[in-house]
Automatic annotation (TrEMBL):
GO terms for molecular function: hydrolase activity. One of its GO terms (biological process) is 'de novo' IMP biosynthetic process. Residues 119-251 form the PurE domain. InterPro entries: P2CMN_synthase_LarB, PurE_dom. PANTHER family: PHOSPHORIBOSYLAMINOIMIDAZOLE CARBOXYLASE-RELATED, SLL1489 PROTEIN. It comes from the Bacteria. NCBIfam families: LarB (NF033503). This is PurE domain-containing protein.
Length: 253
């Protein structure tokens, strides 16, 4: 919103012509910044509590740097870029400073991790092959102000590994369960905890796994009532949703 229009709106609120609630609604509905190849939504954090995140796949390093710059100029920190290859991350870093994690494939500009909640998110991964998706979820959640506890390589083929960390599971505010193959981990975790469980099927598995479809269907058919499911390999979506849940009731949200 242009300064003149914003001042006019604020004057209307001051004079009692517009209610604060209506003014907030107008601000939430304000448009984006058009930079040609992208329309950057600067009011995403006002509506969602979380600023816009850049999906890196399919964008050039120059386009990503331009979007980061637009977000930075509006005071955003912890600007996330997901699904970056190491090669594209190297090219991006030549244009603008980013911290890149090759495991999660997430780059962050203006990195500033501060846990803003009392509760924590537990990210549970069935196997080492699930680490890229698990770390995408964990890094996303941390960037959005959450403490994260990682429990990796605790799949149902060796259930004692998971059961040895029940203290971490049972005191989490929300659990992200990441698994490929048959995806049984989510139901097992759901049966052990009282908090919400976000299941993430991965494309890890042999032929009958159908690129994660078998794990997805298993998780959708879970008999544990506290399990919900995001898309195949969608660690970012799981971390985002877990952050929203973990922040419920926190005064800063």
């Amino acid at each position: 919103m242009e300064p003149e229009k914003l001042l006019s709106l604020l004057d209307s609120v001051k004079n009692g012509e517009v209610s604060p609630e209506d003014a907030l609604l107008r601000l939430k509905m304000e448009p984006f910044e058009d930079i040609g190849y992208a329309k950057v939504d600067h009011h995403r954090s006002l509506r969602h509590g979380i600023p816009e995140v850049i999906y890196g796949a399919g964008k050039t390093p120059e386009q990503i740097a331009g979007i980061i710059t637009a977000l930075k100029n509006h005071g955003n920190t912890n600007i996330l870029v997901t699904r970056l290859t190491p090669e594209k991350a190297d090219e991006l870093h030549k244009l603008i400073a980013v911290d890149y994690d090759p495991v999660s494939r997430v780059a962050i500009h203006g990195r500033k991790f501060e846990a803003a909640t009392k509760g924590y998110i537990a990210v549970v991964a069935a196997g080492t092959s699930d680490l890229p998706v698990s770390e995408e979820a964990a890094v996303t959640a941390e960037a959005f102000g959450n403490k994260v506890e990682r429990l990796y390589d605790v799949g149902v083929a060796g259930l004692h590994r998971l059961l040895s960390r029940l203290d971490v599971l049972m005191t989490a505010k929300v659990v992200i369960a990441v698994a490929g193959m048959e995806g049984a981990l989510a139901t097992v975790v759901g049966g052990l905890v009282s908090c919400p469980v976000i299941a993430v099927p991965t494309s890890v598995g042999y032929g009958a796994n159908f690129g994660g479809l078998s794990a997805l269907l298993s998780m959708l058919n879970s008999c544990a009532g506290n399990v919900s499911v995001v898309n195949i390999d969608n660690g970012f979506g799981a971390g985002y949703l877990a952050s929203l849940i973990n922040h419920i009731g926190e005064s800063e949200r």
